[in-house]
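Hey,

The postdoc asked me to send both predictions to you directly instead of through the lab channel. I've kept everything plain text so nothing gets mangled by the mail client. Protein one:
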Amino acid sequence: MKIICSKTTLNEAVISVSKAVSSHSSLPVLEGIYISASTDGVITLISNDMEMGIEAKISGEVEHGGSTVLNAKILGSIVKNLPLEEVLIELDEKNICTIKSGNSKFEISGMNSIDFPDLPVVNPDYSVKIPKKTLKEMISKTIFCTSLSDNRPILKGCLFDIEGGTVRMVSTDGFRLAVRTYHLEEDNGERKFVVPAKALGEINKILREDDEFVEVNCTSKNAVFIFENYRVVTRLIEGDYINSKVLFMTRAKLSLNVLFMSFLIQFTVHL
């Protein structure tokens, strides 16, 4: 493998992909980033911690195709501190990767790319498109209410509740409740699925606020978010989420009762 690409583009992709690198794994390959280059000039970077995977595609000049897996922390540190914009990455027959930029030169031992686990193939039975600005706002306004406890795993994610032209995102930790609703331009049927807060948080960091859309495809087990040059695959949290509508109405009634009792107390005191 021998490629030449932009430092800025490469650095951005490495930072984004590193979010799904496993930090505590018995498999060293999961602590790395899979890099492959094809002769059509597409360079692919993938990370996979077996719960979530992130794929980024960037363009560059590919003299020779190939693939390897490089330790994410080492690669990130090197790319971040490269002096010039143009980066040369070359892999030899012994899987030693040389990274050059200007007068700087680094060598890293690569890992066998055959050992890197493939991202789950998601053949969706449901698909919806959500504006990037909208999804970013919905995540920001709900994710803080997700639970951090393992006692109820279902509450460690956000519920996507889609009914016709309405998409509703719900999160709760059992004490707080956050609901964000957006009306889509077309009927998207009905579907409910719970996405882990961790995956949504990383998607939110990568998303740019523009007028493009995020394509969300899902099965009963996995969901994939496709936007720009990224593809984020995550396992869904299985189980029955709480009925947010009932909970919201219950709390609203409780609030009204509290206000009414407060009024009665004040009225009695005045009498």
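Protein two:
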Amino acid sequence: MRVLTIDIGNTAVKGSVFEDGTLLESILVDNLDPIPFFPFIEKFHPDGAICCSVGRELKSFLWEVEHWLQKPVMQLSHETPLPIDVVYASRNTLGLDRIAAAAGASIVAEEALVVDAGTAVTLDIVASNRFLGGNISPGLRLRFRSLNKFTSRLPLVSPTGDIPVFGYDTETAIRSGVVNGIVSEIISAFRATKRDHPSIRLLLTGGDADFLAPLIREHGEEPEIAHSLVGKGLERIYIHAINHTINNYNNNAKYNSLPSDI
């Protein structure tokens, strides 16, 4: 089965086609523009599709994609049957992208700290096919923009450039504070998690994964970059939900066909 997965984040939309767990190809779109998906769909002819969104308005986008696909796009929700257990007090407020990443991570590793580094940085623990919870903090660019917006004189600084331990001017002071702060945050959480889960692996995904990975390695840890984690999880959820629906239908049909005197 070929499944089109659509991961709609705060700043970008990622489309991927998987076939039996293998990623065939991905595209990245800057906004909710369905047009780049049309040749992508024509190339792979997916058997089904699923999307998750951080909360953006999807009606027009999904209508266009479904029209071209000639199939409905399943939307991941908190009511969708899941192939993993979610141990989280406020399950209905849990980000759908975090659920998808956890479903993908549990395929890759028995135990993992999943770091999704994008507009926000999420750090989630996944162990024995269970989502156990995690943390949320601002991402790199959000921290840079906040310092610029909510102060009167601090400039907007890029993440790229010299990153000393301590800055030697305003630009490097901001860059070092933001970048080293996020790196330390990830390392601290990972080492704390290893106390209860000694075999846990550190999986990085999201737009800033490639940028952060070498900086984390400088501190002696070995993060694994997993860019397709959310898509892999969405494919798994789609197949699980389809099978769940089929099983329910078959069970109901069997029950309804029983003689009335039983």
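Summary for protein two, as requested: Residues 229-256 form the longest helix (28 residues).

Thanks,
C.
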